[in-house]
Amino acid sequence: MKNNLKISGIQKTSLIDYPDYIATVLFTQGCNMDCPYCHNPELIPLENENEYMNPEYFWEYLEKRKGLIDGIAITGGEPLIQDSIYDFIKEIKGYDLLVKLDTNGTNFNLLKKIVAENLIDYVAMDIKGPLDEYEKYCGTKLSEYLIENIKKSKNLILNSDLDYEFRTTVVPGLHSKETIKKIADSIQGVKNYYLQNFRSEKVNSSKYEQKRSFSEEELEEFVMLLQNKKIIAKIRN
User: Fold this and answer.
1) Domains of the chain (ranges plus CATH)?
2) How much is the pTM?
3) How far lies 228's CA from each of 42, 103, 170, in Å?
């Protein structure tokens, strides 16, 4: 099947991107957010100056990896801003592989379609911060429509039978105890929530290159706050 999905690269083998499975990570180009602390800033622009991977190469690669990997972890960028991702995932499922999808939740309609057709097995959704001030965290102004989509995507995942996780990359100066409390109030019922510590090695904004990470003690305080809100959270460094 011909597909014009913009693939900026793959990581052939990962033991951490798809919990409990061996996966190939596929990176798609383009994101509708501009998070200043993003660790894949080259994937944010809708177009990349480098050549994209030929999808035919990817399918040939999958043929060779039969029996060696359990699934594909699709990340970006934001995979769901490309409509062609639907057919691409559908074709991956034809290889009898598990599919994990990373998303920011802004394309609710496409996510709903993919979930309804059982095309993904695991979904990881980012919760950048409290929705009433999302611009502060995602680096761009989002319409009310996209904010509503994020809410609906969150509820869709919570009420599905999918394996899932919600996650927040916590950044000093952006996230605080109050931030964590607000996030907790918005994700009541979540069964799998991760706090990911900010790292300054590669970031989207130069203002964040010298910013520190949270200490283990500070992260544990966040976890305790979440536990007090009846949310079981884990730290992912």
Assistant:
1) 7-172 (3.20.20.70)
2) 0.95
3) 38, 27, 19
